[in-house]
Amino acid sequence: MPAKSKKMKITACLALAAKDEKVPVKRLYGAALDMYKSMSRKQLEDYCKLPIKK
Questions:
Q1: Calpha distance 21→18 (Å, rounded)
Q2: Are 14 and 6 in contact (CB under 8 A)?
């Protein structure tokens, strides 16, 4: 599923950074925290690589 906006893509990439332990999980909230909890690392990687849908 391509990102529908730049903000969604940034949120997914932030969740991926938390999975990679580059960002502390305690700094996540809202959609980023939900993505972190519900999506696998592979799903987040794929989501961050896709272009933004116009």
A1: 5
A2: no
Residue ranges making up the domain that contains 11: 6-49
What would the pLDDT profile of 15-42 be if each residue is shown by its tens digit?
A: 999 999 999 999 999 999 999 999 999 9
**In this structure, which amino acid lies at residue 34?**
D
- Give Cα 39 to chain centroid, integer Å: 9
Global pTM?
0.81
**What is the residue whose two structure tokens read 């690589």?**
49
Domain count, the chain: 1
In 1-54, DSSP assigns E strands to none
Token pair of 25 as six digits: 């999980």
